[in-house]
Amino acid sequence: MKTILSLALTFLISVSSFATVRTVSNDVTRPAQFNGTGNTAFVAAHNASLAGDTIYVYGSPFDYGTLTISKRLVVMGAGYAPNNQFGQPTRVGQISLFRDGSTDPSGSVIIGFFISGSINCTGTLVTNNVTVFRNRINNYIYLYINSTLQATGWTIYNNIVYQVLANASSRTAASATNILIANNIITGSITNINSNTVLIDHNVFLGPTNLYQLWNVIVTNNIFVRASGDIFSSEVVFCTFNKNISLQNTIAPSSTYNPTNLFETTYTSTGGGSNSGSGNLVGTNPLFLNVPNNNTYDATYNYRLQAGSPGKAPFSTDGTDAGIYGGSYPFPSGGTAGSGFDTSPMPPIPQVTVVNIQNATIAPNGTLNVQVQGRVNN
């Protein structure tokens, strides 16, 4: 059965738009082209790959540790909560993008991982033009190496992520640029960005203190549903806010902002400065279909909007729903609402979901009947 599964998976991936595909496993019960414990199989597959190739990392009960990418690759896991017969996510501790004078992972794509740590840039040069989607990231996405080496051109969408951060420490500091953060469930915050080329669009923010030290950023069509605390922390100044919804009345602390109940508020502490925008709703329930607790992400919750929601189309700047199901990157479903898989989409490739051997015992030279089911996961 393992051979049939491997062949089917390799065929389905190969007929996609990706280049050469190499498969990786650290589970002896599911052998791949490259096998080994920890991250050893990934290292071997990475060394054998050329820029533009794809490495598919099997789901496994074992953590792969740190995956270091130092060339332009599509690196794909099985999903962070895959809805199939095998049911194993691809778990890693962190993903490190290493660039120096001889290596460059810029242009890489990261899909389908359960990352207990972070995605970060390492080396002597920053990695640019990275696409990160359909992952669960329990810590940070770092858009920098240091204050002078900050990324450009990243696209981050359809993830569940705790925090996205650059390294701008003041309103005059350099920042990551040309960043799109769209249609994610953000369980923490977006921080330390200073650029009007950064767009934060169609996300759902859970918990308190969602925006920290932001300057000149464009923030549109998001839903903020903290149950306590403030959306703004420290300086959030010169930003543009259009068509966002806040469940709570208070956007920012009265000690440093006036008024406190508008996104388009003025920073009253040292340096001053105002935010701008229009069409925002404050103290307004977005009316999710089923979200009993706004402080915590739960895979069984349904973050779609009820028919009577004030955020229903054509509310947003683009005429779609506010939140993760509107915009250009609507959050894909991995299963029926309430099943635990709805907000756990698998990578967008044809995948085998069920393999059923119908005659396990056969005579020599007999025929093995295997029923294989799959889906595209668009």
Arithmetic mean of pLDDT: 92
Beta-sheet strand percentage? 25-35%
Low-confidence stretches: 1-18
User: What is Rg?
Assistant: 22 Å
Q: Report the strand count.
A: 32
Shape: globular
Estimate percent helicity.
under 10%
How many helices? The count is 2
Q: What is the domain total for the residues? A: 1
Largest sheet features: 12 strands, parallel
Derived from helix and strand composition plus strand pairing, the structural class reads: mainly beta
Distance between the termini: 26 Å
Q: Strands of the biggest beta sheet: in what spatial order?
A: 2-1-3-5-8-11-13-15-17-20-23-27
Question: How would you characterize the overall build of this protein?
Answer:
There is one protein chain. The protein has one domain. The N terminus is likely disordered. A hairpin with a 7-residue loop joins strand 25 and strand 26. It has two helices and 32 strands. The strands form six sheets. The protein has a twelve-stranded parallel β-sheet, with helices on both faces. Strands 6, 9, 12, 14, 16, 18, 19, 21, 22, 24 and 28 form an eleven-stranded parallel β-sheet that branches. It has a three-stranded parallel β-sheet with strand order 4-7-10. The longest helix is centred in the N-terminal third of the chain and has 13 residues. The protein is globular, with a radius of gyration of 22 Å. The protein is 6% helix and 33% strand. The chain is mainly β and 378 residues long.
